[in-house]
Amino acid sequence: MMKRSYLLLLMFALLANSCDDDDKKVVAPPVSHNMSIGIRAVWSDDLLKFVTPVLNYTDVDGLHEKTVEDTMMVDEIWNIGEETFDFYSQSWNYVFDYAYEDGDSVADLKLTYLAKEHSEIVDTATYTFRHSFSVSSILMSYVDDEGKITVYNYSGGQESPSEVQCLGSEARRIIDSLICHPFERKIIFHKGDVGVE
């Protein structure tokens, strides 16, 4: 009888220890699968006479399009000391949430241009077409290999604008080329590492 009691106690102890091991398993905490992305774009006043910029991207929630209205842009005018510098450009800073799934590795951002109707080009006039599109910030969180939430913060620099000066007789060809070839930025992300191309 004593042997059976000892055997039962030993089995109960082993069962209790195995339950304790299950309780000690690492359970990953919940994490939001969102990135906060900040972008910056600059356009010359001349370019904005003929096109409307549109930001496009697709995440797990579907296709997103953000038309950049005139009221969303800021004049690129700097006051340094007593001097004022007008760069005849408009800038746009925009921050948005990008939702992704585990296994995703690339976020594609495209800046397209729509031709404005009733915009008149003067063949003898000189136009300056300047533009840039850069990723200025990324904030994201993920679960690391130890089951802890880690925050990744990226701060990027500003790209130098591409610039073309031309006569009005060449302007239509340049505008059509910009419309056909969108600006594209790729955000490549993996646990602990984010890059921008």
Structural class: alpha+beta
Backbone CA Rg: 28 Å
Relative strand content: over 45%
**Apparent shape:** elongated
Number of DSSP strand runs: 11
Regions with little confidence, pLDDT below 50 for 5+ residues = 6-10
Rounded mean pLDDT is 84
- Spell out the helices and strands N to C: HEHEEEEEEEEHEE
User: Could you give a short account of the major beta sheet?
Assistant: 6 strands, antiparallel
Question: Helical content, roughly?
Answer: 10-25%
End-to-end separation in angstroms reads: 76 Å
In DSSP terms, counting alpha (H) and pi (I) runs of 4 or more, how many helices?
Answer: 3
Please, could you describe this protein's structure?
It is built from three helices and eleven strands. The chain has helices at 2-23, 45-48, 168-180, and strands at residues 34-44, 51-59, 62-67, 74-80, 83-99, 106-115, 126-143, 149-155, 162-167, 183-190, 193-196. The N and C termini lie far apart (76 Å). 20% of the residues lie in helices and 52% in strands. The longest helix has 22 residues, at 2-23. The chain is elongated and about 65 Å long. By secondary structure, it is of the alpha+beta class. β7 and β8 (149-155) form a beta hairpin.
Name the features.
single chain, 197 residues, alpha+beta, five-stranded antiparallel sheet, 3 helices, 11 strands, elongated
Concise account of the structure shown:
This protein has about 200 residues and is α+β, with helices and mostly antiparallel strands. It has helices at about 1-25, 45-50, 170-180, and strands spanning about 35-45, 50-60, 60-65, 75-80, 85-100, 105-115, 125-145, 150-155, 160-165, 185-190, 195.
